[in-house]
Structure of DUF641 domain-containing protein:
Amino acid sequence: MASKAVTIGDLIHRVATSCLSNRLPGNYALHDSGDTDLDDEDDDPFADFTDAVSGGEERKRSPSSEEVAAAAEEDDEDKGGDADEEKLKIWEEKRKVAAAVASGAERARDAEALMAEVFDAVSGVRRAYSSLQGAHCPWDPDRMRTADVEVVAELRHLARLRDRFRRSAATGHIPRPNPTAPPLREAVAPYEAALDDLRRQLQAKQAEVDGLKEKLAIASNRRNARLHPSKHNASASGGAPTAELFTACAEQTRAATRAFAAHLLQLMRAAGLDLTAATRSLTKIPVSSPQLAKHALEAHATRVLLGGFEHESFYLDGSLSSLLDPAAFRMERYTQFRDMRGMEPTELLGLLPTCPFGRYAASKFASLLPPRVEQAVLGDGEHRRAVDGGAHPRTPFYGEFLRAAKAVWMLHLLAFALQPPPSHFEASRGAEFHPEYMESVAGSRGAGAGAGMVVGFAVAPGFRLGNGTVVRARVYLVPRGGRP
């Protein structure tokens, strides 16, 4: 080496030879090299790694049967998962469609329910308005106020339905009422009916209290007249007949007639008669129970005693004094009324048995009790024989009759003392019940009579006075199509 000259070419040759005879790090080998040393696996430190990499590449290029089966199973699982996802998507779409259909059906049902409520509300408005029109003829202020409240309530209900529809149009959902809860109108209706019934009962009680006050005032006046007759006559002589006085006298007349009917009923019961059959035979009223006998007897006594009330002398004579000198006739009648007011009828007839009042009492007694009824009730005909002879018996039964007859006579005198004289009216059988012109003999129970009640029979007539005051007729009410 020391004897040879080193040149640049020798150095390049050595370096190239060394590079070609040794492998480069990082497995960068020159495969095109023909050097045998490159194929020696024992001398290659990366032989194992190289073989592993090359073997893996060879397996990829030619997989085994197990690998093929495993790959097929994986493909099937992938395809099965895709199928499940498709089925899930289809199910979700079907569920959405079913929900949309159900929602549409529910909205349709809600709309139908709302329309039904609208039709009901319109029908309620029509019914309330019909009631309002019916309250005008005959004129009934109480019914008008009630019907007016009903009309306003129905209109408000219709307005609430309109607002509900507008809200549903804005939100796309119609609020549906709770089907288990009753509507507000149905829930309140029983309480309204009970309230109306209580009001009618209160009005009836108030009318009864007013009647009792009038009777108390009349009784007090009669007591004062008996205790101080001169003072009472002096104060009465300067007065004039009034509608209030006539109304009070009418109440006294009805009370006296009821007392006579009750006394006659007691005599019939004491005689052992069948009250229903005997009352039906006497009064010609189709009475079906003993409880109605008293009202039927009162109706019979009132009809007989007030027969001919429109004539100035009950048709006892042909006098026409009221046409010749009306003013003097009215003054004379009022004078007779004041004179007879404090007198007992038995005392008057004991002195003047054939006076006009005596002749009136005798004629009415003959019509009130036929001979066979008088004999069955009283046991003999002594009363009729005495009356036909111009006398008036002093018996309890005839005394009750005279008190009722005197009350009717006094009412007749006062009626012809008024200007204009009051007109009387009577309810016919089967007529509709009008509380402004009629009152039920059942008291508070009759005050709550509804539209289905009609007149079974008239008990006492009513009177209409010149100033518009009405003395209501007394009637017995029965259901429509029923019998007393």
Observations:
- Residues 24-54, 56-61, 229-238 have pLDDT under 50 and may be disordered.
- The two ends are 165 Å apart (CA to CA).
- The chain has five domains: 8-62, 95-176, 204-238, 240-419, 422-484.
- The chain has 17 helices and six strands.
